[in-house]
Amino acid sequence: MSLSSRHLLGLQGVPREDIQLILDTAQTFKEVLQRPIPKVPTLRGKTVVNLFFEPSTRTRISFELAEKRLSADTVNFTASSSSVLKGETLRDTARNIEAMKVDIVVIRHSAAGAPHFLSRHVRANVINAGDGRHEHPTQALLDMMTLREKFGTLEGLRVAIVGDIANSRVARSNLYGLRTMGAEVALCGPRTLIPAEAELWGVPIFYDVDQAIAWADVLNVLRIQRERQARGYFPSLREYHMRWGITRKRLEKAGKPIVIMHPGPINRGIELDSDLADSEFSVILDQVTNGVAVRMAVLYLLSGETSVD
């Protein structure tokens, strides 16, 4: 079992067979996580460096936990406590990593393309944990795993991605991955938060959230990324919630079963009503659980190891 590439830099152009292999392997690791001792020696002797140039909680902890469950040696790097503050460049960081004989590098960076740059300068396998507004492949993979568990298949499933599309790397990776696996994808949000290039993606675009709900089986609700917005893209958070927020009233009006997803962290009461995040519609906690299994699968498949146990 192996992937067609030695890195996971994004899902654009990744073959269906690779995605299928990752999801199937993640299912095996989810069973491992349910054991009394949820740990295997699969990556014993391997060293994984987590390079996080941006703040992160869920993704960083999920990768760290996945690495520990696989018995890897883990080194954590954060920009706030590193030589980056002294002027060290990504190229210099890459050269230092190479000198340390690291096996796998997990990188999150504010610049789109940083993982691709790193992959050209190190022998280690590189995993993209989010780069700028570009991609976040493992988030999309855990989303797909969650939906496959819920529906049995991704083929023909209608998924509407709602909210801050322009600033979202999650939206792009989900778009690429879901379409590869046979799902239908639509986008929904204010015109100011739908990027101009979205017209070229060949997917339905809704500017009315009620129309998106009527179309969809699943709503993947994105966080409003105020930290990435250099200017106001809508008059107020209150107005955003009134026009595009997902509420119980809106779901009940649709009169059909619908599944709610969110990559976190949730701005409760803005993009999603607080009670819905914890409701029968939500699979958000399943996404969190599946995140560890998916990241275990990616680490395992890229490591070249031949045995899960």
Short description:
39% of the residues lie in helices and 14% in strands.
Description:
The protein folds into 2 domains: 133 residues, Aspartate/ornithine carbamoyltransferase (Rossmann fold, 3-Layer(aba) Sandwich); 151 residues, 3-Layer(aba) Sandwich (Rossmann fold). The chain has 309 residues and is of the alpha/beta class. Helix 5 packs across helix 6. Strands 7-6-5-8-9 form a 5-stranded parallel sheet. Strands 2-1-3-4 form a 4-stranded parallel sheet. Helix 4 links the parallel strand 3 and strand 4. Helix content is 39%, strand content 14%. The longest helix is centred in the C-terminal third of the chain and has 20 residues. It has 11 helices and 9 strands.
Order of helices and strands: HEHEHEHEHEHEEHEHHEHH
Helix content: 25-40%
Look at the structure and name the CATH superfamily of the largest domain: Aspartate/ornithine carbamoyltransferase
- Taking all residues together, what is the mean pLDDT? 91
Report the uncertain regions. none
- The gross shape turns out to be globular
- Largest sheet: spatial strand order: 7-6-5-8-9
Can you tell me the number of structural domains?
Answer: 2
- Structural class, please? alpha/beta
Number of helices: 11
Q: Proportion of β residues?
A: 5-15%
Q: Report the count of strand segments.
A: 9
How does the SSE layout of this entry go?
Blueprint: H1 16-33, E1 47-52, H2 58-69, E2 73-78, H3 90-99, E3 104-109, H4 114-119, E4 125-131, H5 137-151, E5 158-162, H6 169-180, E6 184-188, E7 205-206, H7 209-215, E8 218-221, H8 237-244, H9 248-254, E9 259-261, H10 274-277, H11 284-303
